[in-house]
Amino acid sequence: MTSKELDPLLIELGTLLLTDEGAFQSKIKSVAPLLKAIDIAVLNQRLHNPPQEPKCFNDELGLGGWMSVIQYVIFEIVYHSGSSQLKWIRDFAYGEYDWTQATALTIICRWYVEGKIEKENFEELDTQLYDMRYETWLNLAQALYGLAKRDERYFTLIDSFTTPVMIGALVELGVDPSLQRKYLIQIGQLILDEANEDMLLLLTDFFNQGSNYPNAADLLYFPGEANIDPYTYEPNIAEIVDKCLAYKLAENHDSQRHSTLL
C-alpha cells in the first residue's frame, strides 16, 4: 500500500477518533486484515508528515494536534497488525524520548496481556521503566489504568510491576480511593525498607503527592501526636495513610463549602 492509498484511510480513522471513538475502534478492527499488508516504511513517512487535516476541523487542531492524532492512529494500525512488528515498536519504546514512547510501551503491555509476546518483553519494560522520563511514567500509568477499568487483566499486570514508579505514577494521577489507599500503603512500606537515597527521594515524593497531606512521609518516621515517644515510635502505615486520605477528604469538603458560601 502506497502513501497515496494509505492517506484516505488515515484521514478517515483520524476523523473517527476525534468524533466517535466507538466507530473508530469498529473501523480499525474491520480493516485489520488489510493493515497487515501496509509497508511499515510508508507508516514511518507519515509519523511526522501527516496527510492534510480535513476541512471539517477548520484547522482548529493545528499541525501539531492533527499530527498527534495521526501518530496515535498509526500506532493502533501497528497494534492491530500484530506482534510481528515488535521490533518497530521497541525502537520507539526504548529509543530517544518522544511522547509516542508511552504509546509504544502500552502496546507492548497489550500484546503481553493478550499472550501475543513472551514474558521477557514485559520484564524488559519493567526493568527499563525507571530510567525513562517522568512524563512517560505518567502517560503509561494513565493508559494502563484506563485499560484496567475495562479489563481486569490490566490490574493484574499493574500489580506485577517490580519497579515502584508504576504505582507511584498512579497515586500521583489519582485513582479509585481503594486503590489509592492500597498503593500508598505499598509505597509507605517501600520507603521504610529503601536504602538507596535516589529511590527514597522519589518514593517520598510519590507518597507526599498522592497523600495530599503536608509532608505526609514524615509521619512514617515521626509521630504526629506529641504524647508519643519518637524513639519508640513504630509507624502503622495503614493508619498513617488513612489519616492522610481523611485529611484530603476534609480539605476538599471545606473547599467546596467555601465555594458555596461565596
TrEMBL record:
It comes from the Bacteria. This is Uncharacterized protein. It comes from Chitinophaga skermanii. The lineage of its organism: Bacteria, Pseudomonadati, Bacteroidota, Chitinophagia, Chitinophagales.
